[in-house]
Specification:
By secondary structure, this protein is α+β, with helices and mostly antiparallel strands. It has 2 helices and 2 strands. Helices cover 63% and strands 17% of the residues. A hairpin with an 8-residue loop joins strand 1 and strand 2.
Amino acid sequence: MDKVQLMQGVADKLFATETAIDAALSDTAALVSEMVSARNAAHVSSTLDVKAHAKVAEAMGALVAARTAMAAAHNEMNEVKLRLGVRTRMGGIIVNKGMDEAVRTEARLRIVNEG
C-alpha cells in the first residue's frame, strides 16, 4: 500500500471521528432541551433535576474538549502529510436538486502524490 492510500485511510477515520463527536455534541444539546421541556411539561421545580443537568453539562464539556483535541490532531496530521510529500486539493460535484431547491455543492477531498 502506498503512502497516499495510507493517508487516505487515516483521513477517512479522522473525518469519521470528527463527525461522531459533532453528532454526540448535537445529541447532548438536544438532551438538555428535552430535559427542560419535560420538566416544564410536568410542572415541576427546576431544582428537581439540577444534578442531572450538571452531569450532562459536564459530559458536554468533555465532548467540547474532545472536539478541540481532534481539531489540534487534524492540524498536526496535516503537517505529517506534508512531510510525507502528500498534497491535497478540494474537488467538488454540483448537484442540482430541482427548480425549487437550491443547488448543492458536495466537496470531496482528493489526495494527490507530488513526491
